[in-house]
Automatic annotation (TrEMBL), chain A:
The lineage of its organism: Bacteria, Bacillati, Actinomycetota, Actinomycetes, Streptosporangiales. This is Response regulator transcription factor. InterPro entries: CheY-like_superfamily, NreC/VraR/RcsB-like_REC, Sig_transdc_resp-reg_C-effctor, Sig_transdc_resp-reg_receiver, Tscrpt_reg_LuxR_C, WalR-like. Residues 144-214 form the HTH luxR-type domain. The modification 4-aspartylphosphate is found at residue 52. Keywords: DNA-binding, Phosphoprotein, Transcription, Transcription regulation. CDD domains: LuxR_C_like (cd06170), REC_NarL-like (cd17535).
């Protein structure tokens, strides 16, 4: 699996390169600024891009802008955005085209190697990986929404994990319940929120995110 | 002529100004009495009674003349600021009285006030009140032509109306009567036509005498700057203390704890690897927590979206995290200077927090515009209203902080709602807008 990496701190860049290489990824290019990121993405068309939001030369949201632009040129290009902070506004912009293949994680998540690598694979496969912090803030600001208030605490937990992009199996493992139970919760959630039922995990996640992002 | 009277068309204004001018002239009646009292007090200055009474007489005069300032501002569009120099803080005892007396008697504005009281009745008669006088004279012409002229003539009276001689036989001469009525009509027409111009001239006179001189304007400006500078210094010192405390209690304490745990792990590594593994997980948790706290701190100092995208998107991001349904509209041609941007952002943030806490609103609208060198932010909520600057809602604090940038805050919150808070910050737009791609 070919990866393009953009990170301006050399130490972190080297770290990410070796981390991804040990897990069997092939690094197509590792860049340290916005303009060369866009060029690398368009030239290499990688299976997944791992991008830092803040990049030189302007040290603003250059990485995010380059990623969005690349996705405009190559629709559905999987991009995992890493950042020191997460913002709902940026999450919305990434999810706006509704095609999936999007990840938005805090940089600290890299500490948990297994989870991080899983997130990269998920994004590369067209799924989503949203940081728990984005999702919890999304839920917090959506509490005024009555259908969400009708969910049981367990269902809210499942919704939160689902919105992060986890599969049913992963949710079951995390909550220490059977996959069947998770499937049942999921069906309840979709019924309560009046969302169309689908078996496809990716589409299901996008539906939930779109619901929360209204 | 003014931005105040935009709701009036020129004809309405012509119809109304003569009576406004007359009203301004009548203001001179109470003002003259106050002026008499003032000069009486001045004449007693050689005795201590005069010194005791002088401040109150001056204040009485100032309040009286504030009515002129208000009306001239409203009717002529010549906005007149109060010209008075700042007064010393009130001190008890003889020294305080003397100090106040000297400050007031040395303020040129006090004497210009007196000049106004003495001169204005005459100036007003020939400017603001002139149209009404002309109209009155015109009406007198009609009365003469109608019946009064005949009465005067028949009783052997002798009078002139402009150039028309009213005497015996006047009432039976139709040519004279028509001439009188026509002249009266001309006077009335002239009165209405010159009304706005005369009121404008009067406004200038008011501005010259009642408004601040260059010197008092500077003195007032210096006082304002001194106040806002000390506010700014206080605010930044408080902010530094807060940051220091947050770092000390948060990230720093966690790093110390992590160091100690790592020491313990080193010891346990050989004897009890299982326990060491547990502690390692804990340490990782601690480091994540420390990062989280640092992130919150940075967000409080300089929010990332504000740095990346500027105030409109930063307020949009704020709205997304807000418990109330918040709609943000705004378009700025470029970004304001960073300090202004930051001040406006934190002001909006605090107003939104206030709205969530106190207003009982369900929706909030934020609008950001740049007009005539001002960044204008309007925050409207559909709550129960009744907010005031002083009932502990923190609006006074916001006002002080944007005061550093000569910003002003206006609150409009009738009981029953809605509440509208408007911020205006003068600023230049520095960096050109970068397109979002």
């Amino acid at each position: 699996m070919r990866v393009v990496l953009a990170e301006d701190l050399a130490l972190l860049r080297e770290g990410l390169v070796s981390l991804l290489e040990t897990h069997g990824f092939e690094i197509a290019d590792a860049v340290d600024n916005g303009p060369s990121l866009l060029k690398a993405l368009v030239d290499h068309r990688p299976d997944v891009a791992v991008v830092d939001v803040r990049l030189p030369p302007s040290f603003t949201d250059e990485g995010l802008q380059a990623a969005l632009e690349a996705r405009r040129r190559i629709p559905g290009l999987p991009v995992l955005v890493l950042s020191q902070y997460v913002e709902q506004l940026y999450a919305r912009e990434l999810l706006a085209d509704g095609t999936g293949g999007i990840g938005y994680l805090l940089k600290d998540r890299v500490f948990d190697t297994a989870q991080f690598v899983d997130a990269v694979r998920r994004v590369a496969a067209g799924g989503t990986a949203m940081d728990p912090e984005v999702i919890s803030r999304l839920l917090a600001s959506s509490t005024r929404d009555t259908p969400l208030g009708r969910l049981t605490p367990r269902e809210t937990e499942v919704l939160e994990l689902m919105a992060q992009g986890r599969s049913n199996a992963a949710i079951a493992e995390q909550l220490v319940v059977t996959e069947r139970a998770v499937t049942k919760h999921t069906a309840n959630i979709f019924a309560k929120l009046d969302l169309p039922v689908t078996d496809d995990t990716n589409r299901r996640v996008l539906a939930v995110l779109a619901y929360l992002n209204r | 002529m003014s931005g105040q009277l935009v709701s009036e068309n020129p004809w309405q204004r012509r119809l109304r100004t003569p009576w406004r001018g007359l009203g301004l002239w009548f203001l001179g009646i109470p003002a003259t009495f106050v002026g008499l009292w003032f000069i009486t007090v001045v004449s007693m200055v050689t005795s201590f009674v005069g010194i005791l009474l002088f401040p109150s007489a001056t204040m009485l005069l100032r309040r009286r003349l504030d009515r002129y300032r208000g009306r001239i501002g409203r009717w002529t569009g010549h906005r007149i600021e109060r010209p008075y120099l700042p007064q010393p803080d009130t001190e008890p005892g003889f020294q305080g009285v003397m100090r106040r007396f000297i400050a007031l008697i040395c303020d040129p504005a006090t004497w210009r006030d007196y000049l106004w009281v003495v001169a204005d009745p005459f100036v007003a008669l020939f400017t603001a009140a002139l149209p009404a006088v002309l109209i009155g004279y015109g009406v007198w012409g009609y009365l003469l032509a109608g019946f009064a002229g005949k009465l005067i003539g028949d009783h052997g009276g002798n009078d002139w109306y402009a150039y028309v001689h009213v005497h015996h036989g006047y009432g039976d001469d139709p040519a004279q009567l028509v001439l009188t009525a026509a002249t009266g009509t001309l006077f009335i027409a002239a009165g209405f036509l010159i009304g706005p111009k005369m009121l404008d001239v009067y406004g200038r006179w008011g501005q010259a005498i009642l408004g601040p001189t260059e010197k008092s304007r500077l003195a007032l400006r210096v006082r304002h700057l001194t106040e806002t500078r000390s506010d700014a210094v206080d605010a930044s010192a408080a902010e530094l203390r807060r940051i220091e405390r947050d770092l000390h209690d948060g990230a720093q304490a966690r790093l110390v704890a992590m160091g100690m745990t790592l020491g313990a792990i080193e010891h346990l590594l050989d004897r009890d690897p299982e326990k060491a593994r547990l502690l390692l997980a804990q340490t990782r948790e601690s480091s994540a927590q420390a990062l989280h706290e640092l992130r919150d701190l940075v967000r409080g100092i300089h929010p990332p979206v504000l740095a990346d995208r500027g105030i409109v998107d930063a307020v949009k991001a704020l709205a997304l995290d807000h418990p109330l349904k918040t709609e943000v509209t705004g378009d700025l041609p470029a970004r304001p200077e960073p300090p202004v941007e930051s001040a406006a952002y934190f002001a909006v943030s605090e107003i939104l927090t206030n709205a969530a806490k106190h207003s009982g609103a369900s929706r909030v609208w934020v609008d950001l515009r740049y007009e005539r060198g001002m960044l204008r932010v309007t925050v409207t909520d559909d709550g129960h209203g009744g907010a005031s600057l002083d009932n502990g809602t923190g609006l006074r604090g916001i006002e002080r902080r944007i005061g550093t940038f000569d910003g002003v805050l206006a609150l409009n919150s009738p009981v029953g709602g809605p509440t509208i808070v408007t911020l205006e910050l003068p600023c230049a737009l520095s960096s050109p807008k970068t397109s979002p791609s």
